[in-house]
Amino acid sequence: MTTGRTVLVTGGNRGIGFSIAEEFIRQGHRVAVTARSGAGPDGSLTVRADVTDAASIDAAFTEIEAALGPVEVVVANAGITRDMLLMRMSDDDFTSVVDTNLSGAFRVVKRASKAMLKARFGRIVLISSVVGLYGSAGQVNYSASKSGLVGLARSVTRELGARGITANVVAPGFIETDMTAKLSETQQADYKRNIPAGRFATPGEVARVVTWLAGDDAAYISGAVIPVDGGLGMGH
Questions:
Q1: Is 220 a catalytic residue?
Q2: Where is the Ketoreductase domain (predicted)?
Q3: Is pTM, for the whole model, over 0.90?
Q4: Would the pLDDT of 2 be above 60?
Q5: Residues 100, 97: Cα–Cα separation, whole Å
Q6: Cβ distance 65 to 71 under 8 Å?
Q7: Given 134, 142, 191, 220, which residue is catalytic?
Q8: Structure confidence by residue, pLDDT tens digits, 179-229
Q9: Is the dihedral of CA 107, 112, 118, 122 positive or negative?
């Protein structure tokens, strides 16, 4: 991007979200993160927000707009997992994951679109997962929520594309985070055997794809699903 923009990363207090916020800061942008607890990287504005609550999202945007100006780039990254086999999964296990991961992205994008339409510019990046299209046993709720982001991005593209707004999906595979670090060496080796690249990604590798999509070079890309998975999903 040629000039610094106002960027919001939801769930920017840890993992991939933290790295995405860090990379935007490194590139000279004004960055806010939402978090239910903890804080974003140095140089970011952390605001408390719960993506399952529209009023909370609205208040967070109002706070960010007052401090940094209208949000021009939004990265919907906040997400939860409640992994369980289908037969044991409760209604609440399913709906809570969908409400955070999919409905949460909808609430954030809807609120962000107001200023984007006025400015006739916007970059929307939704953080999905390889399992959104590839599927994963024990993750019916998570996979469904991450798959839904594709339909969301593509419909937003058709609605808002003529106003200088793009909406894209980044689908990471296995990333070196606290979550993968907890896996045993045997489990890690099993996963890596299925990844053509033979390794997990670094969070920075995902972050740089996100910042590229938000930049001027990707102005004509919208409704796309960009896998960052070392070849695991093969376009699924």
A1: no
A2: 5-178
A3: yes
A4: no
A5: 5
A6: yes
A7: 142
A8: 778 888 898 898 899 999 999 999 999 999 999 999 999 999 999 999 999
A9: negative
pLDDT in tens, 67-114: 999 999 999 999 999 999 999 999 999 999 999 999 999 999 999 999
- The answer, yes or no, to whether residue 1 has pLDDT greater than 50, is no
Assigned token pair, 56: 């909370």
Torsion of CA 168, 169, 172, 176, to 10 degrees: 70
CB 191 within 8 A of CB 219: no
Cβ-Cβ contacts under 8 Å for 186 (sequence gap 6 or more): none
Q: What does DSSP assign to residue 30?
A: E
Name the token pair of 227: 């896998």
Domain boundaries, the chain: 6-174+204-225
Residue type, 184: S
Of the pLDDT bands very low, low, confident and very high (cuts 50, 70, 90), residue 235 is confident
- Average pLDDT of the chain, as a whole number: 95
The end-to-end CA distance of the chain, in Å, is: 30
User: Quick one: tokens of 149?
Assistant: 């982001």
Tell me if the domain spanning 6-174+204-225 has CATH number 3.50.50.60. Answer: no
∠ CA 202-171-93, rounded to 5°: 105
The CA distance from 128 to 68, in Å, is 27
